[in-house]
Amino acid sequence: MTIPLTEHPETGATGPVHALEVRGLVKHYPGVKALDGVDLVVRQNEVLGLAGENGAGKSTLLKALVGLVRPDAGEIWVRGEKVRLKSVVDAADHGIGMVFQEQSLVPNLTAAENIVLGSEGPGVRRGIYRWDTMRRLAQEQLDKIGSHIDPLARTDSLSFAERQMVEIAKVLRIEERTSNPPVIILDEPTSVLESKEIETLFTQVRRLREFASVVFVSHRLDEVLDVCDRVAVLRGGVSVGEMPTADAVPTDLHRLMIGSTGSDDHYHEGLAERSADEGEPRLVVKGLCGKTFRDVDLEVRAGEIVGIVGVHGSGREDVCRALFGAEPTLAGEVTLDGQPLDLSGTRAAVASGVGYVPAERKIEGMVGPMSVADNMTLTKQKSRCAGPMVVPQKQASLVDKWIERLSIRTPHRGTQIGRLSGGNQQKVVLARWLVAGDIRLLLLDHPTRGLDIGARSEVYRLMRELANSGVATVLLADSLEEAIGMSDRIIVMSDGRATTEVGCPSGGKPTPLDLVKEMV
Amino acid sequence: MSTPVIAEPASNPAAEPAIVKGGPTAAQRVTSFMPVIALVTLLAALTIADPDFLSQRSLTAAVRTSAPLVVLAAGATLVVLCGGIDLSIAALCSLSTVFFAMWLPDVGGLTILAVVAAAGAIGAVQGIAHVLLRIPSFVVTLGGMSIFSAIALVISDAGPIRVVDRDATSWLNLYVAGYVPMSFFVAFLVVAVISLVIKLTPLESFVRATGYSESAARLAGTPVDLVKVAAFTVSGACAGLAAVMLASRNFSGSPTMADNLLLPAVAAIVVGGTAITGGHGSLWRSLAGALVVTLLRVGLPIVGVPSAWEQILYGAIIVAAVALTLDRSKVAIIK
Prior knowledge:
The complex is a heterodimer of chains A (520) and B (335).
Chain A: E1 20-29, E2 32-42, E3 47-51, H1 58-65, E4 73-78, E5 81-83, H2 88-93, E6 96-99, H3 111-116, E7 124-125, E8 128-129, H4 131-144, H5 160-171, E9 183-187, H6 195-209, E10 213-217, H7 221-227, E11 230-235, E12 238-244, H8 250-258, E13 281-290, E14 296-301, E15 305-309, H9 316-323, E16 329-336, E17 339-340, H10 346-351, E18 354-357, H11 361-365, H12 372-376, E19 385-386, E20 389-390, H13 392-405, H14 422-434, E21 441-445, H15 453-468, E22 472-476, H16 480-486, E23 489-494, E24 497-503, H17 512-519
Parallel strand pairs in A: 3-10, 3-11, 6-9, 9-10, 15-22, 15-23, 18-21, 21-22
Antiparallel strand pairs in A: 1-2, 1-4, 4-5, 7-8, 11-12, 13-14, 13-16, 16-17, 19-20, 23-24
Helix pairs in contact in A: 4-5, 14-15
Chain B: E1 5-6, H1 26-32, H2 34-49, H3 56-81, H4 89-107, H5 111-132, H6 137-155, E2 161-162, E3 175-176, E4 180-181, H7 182-200, H8 203-212, H9 214-219, H10 224-250, E5 252-253, H11 262-271, H12 283-302, H13 310-325
Antiparallel strand pairs in B: 2-5, 3-4
């Protein structure tokens, strides 16, 4: 695939020497092709947006650009020079710096210390900190972005937005290492900011463009279109296109992100059998409080899929875990089919017929070195036992049955689950809750994270089938589109509270923008 | 300015191979046979150094010496499989020898059971402290080690206590089938029974899941805490049984009798190839590891190495064995 050279939107200059260029970058992880031949061009003094769904390969690409990930194949060119980036320091020497999604400042140091940390230069002489020099160096950095933060303020006393400014000031230290204008990567910089703070950040980004190139990554398409000159889209580890933002609308971008396969019945809505408002609620949550959420009310009927949406920090993941007994609760009543639900621990939840699929599949969802069979029967041990003893034949026939029913692609039931592809791993994790046939409530935390489109579709189909068999489902979707496509109702959470409920029946689905309005 | 450039990927992203990696690597294969290779190599080397070594008499003696170590390492292996470590086994074993010598006159024939039960209970307390107070097992058992040593010194008046009734444990000095020392037979039986119970019940899944990924095990609803407490209980009970073997051989109990067995026991576990990070391994491996360590111990004087070098060797063995077996991809930060 080639990306044609186009004129720079502002200078009008055509030039083959780009600030940064990526050619055919490939990175495979066991079970996942994170990058499968990515091409990307970052021009001088431009803000390039990088868009793509979860699992599209954005994070891996960014990590490759700052030397945290070694690509399996492909080339990275900085200002017409081919480079091999071995570490963050190496990347900094080439003028590439990144502001990380999870903030990477040391909270109990001052802003000045954080800014010069790792590149103290004249701030340290003979191993001794020279505070006035440090302060001056930090102030220079803060002046570059026109920030008025006190360099001697302790970092944990600053607001999120201020800390972000400190991060940007810190990353601009790479200017000391190279004579060329730097490339600054901002990974989801707005996810924890409020709208006023976002404006400040955008002003900052536009200021950066005066002397640097910026790569801006965000889930919010309107932001990308607002602040970027051009946007490149990744899907499934491949560059699928790019467009100038001047004449683009979010739907164009979105179509590019999810691909054309998203247009037909991707979410298997045709399979949904149940009609709304049928029967008694299976799960009733009243006034549930925990460390990160308060007064959450929630009802889910048998056979219903209820999505919970919310931005980072809305507390929806913790509500999900609390319902599974994996997160302590402070107050509230929860009943399942009229019986009080014991939230004291995961064992109690399992015994009540509650199942949970965690977002972090590789760490929390499965035990990688154990076999497909042992992972599948890990929870419902009775399903493979007679009395206290495991009966291998019983396990074998049960597991083989589910491998066939869910069309899990594995050479054998004894294969280590870590060797399967992501989609097949997830199907085994889901099967864990199904083998005993006693599941009543299924809590799905990002069940399609990191899966390719084909595997997603199979997980969606499975969710529909489970719902049709009467399982109540709570879904924390990977994207708003997924939440809308799969859910019968959507609860919007914000700052730890369930703020709105949006009906989401087949044929009367809200648009992502409708939901975004409720979320902010 | 032209219209947006939209290019479709040529390849179908759904056409992902089901299997990404192949079988075990060469290094994994070597480490899985490591204890057997080490055992055979050692035997061969010692036989070359001293052709008399491969006699029934010296082999019987070596195997009998290994019995307490086998039991000690077997119990601690369970804790390691669960992802923890039990540093208190040697101190608890010493304390148990004191218990044994002190209780024998009063309790009589049931002393063995009483000592094993007491040591098991002490192990359980450590397990409960680890689970309930959420303290790393390393810290709990390091504290335990110091406490048990001190208790042993206090109740024994800091000296050995003679075993008055030698008949209570004389059966341990018999031979099975004429050649196999009873103490080693018992150690073998302990390993076999524990291994079998684990193998035939869901415990194997529970222990491995806990060791490989505790959070995954917990979120799958397995009884993680119970399994850990059980592992510490068995580890403690094994220390008690090892104490009975030591006391019966030395005809006394002493507050420092087993203290020098901690390093050999840990060495036995890691030489056996059980992953120090948990999940992978078995008690049988530790049995083989304990034999390797014992052979080294009795073999060093044969090849003329002063016994003072023993500790250096254990230290080196542990570091080398872990260096060979540690799966660094699993451990994000090596502390």
